[in-house]
Amino acid sequence: MAAWIWVLIPLVAIIGGFIIEYQKNKISMMNRSRQNEEEVEDLRKLVNALKGRIENLEAIAAGEPEEFSTGSGRGMEEIEIEEEPSIKEQNQQEVSNMADKRRTK
C-alpha cells in the first residue's frame, strides 16, 4: 500500500501542473479574445468615420465636375456598415443637386 502512495503523489503533482497550465492558457486566450473584440469595434468606428469623410469629399468634389469621377467603383459597397444613413443620404442628395445644376447650365 505504501508503494502506491509513492506513485500516486508524483502523478497528482504532474496532472495538477497540467491542469494549472491549461487554466492559465485558457485565461490568456480569453483576454486576447476581449482585446480583439475591442480592436474590431475601434476599427468599425474608424471605418465609419472615414466613410463620412469620403462622402463629404465627394460632395466637395462635385462642385468641380471636371475633376469629379462618377465611376467610384464598388469599394465602398463592400465595406458598408450602416450606422448613420442620414449623412449618406444628405451627401448623395447634395451631389445629385450639384450635378443637376451643372447639367442644366
Account of the 3D structure:
By secondary structure, this protein is mainly alpha-helical. The chain is built from 3 helices and no strands. The protein has helices spanning 2-61, 75-78, 85-104. The longest helix has 60 residues, at 2-61. The protein is rod-shaped, with a radius of gyration of 30 Å.
Describe, in short, the structure shown.
This protein has 105 residues and is mostly helical. Helix content is 80%, strand content 0%.
SSE diagram, text form:
Layout: H1 2-61, H2 75-78, H3 85-104
Strand fraction: under 5%
Q: What is the number of strand segments?
A: 0
Series of H and E elements: HHH
- First-residue to last-residue Cα separation: 104 Å
Spans of 5+ residues with little confidence (pLDDT < 50)?
none
Secondary structure tally, helices: 3
Mean pLDDT value: 78
Helix content: over 70%
Label the overall shape. rod-shaped
Rg to the nearest angstrom? 30 Å
Structural class, from helix and strand content? mainly alpha
Largest sheet features: none
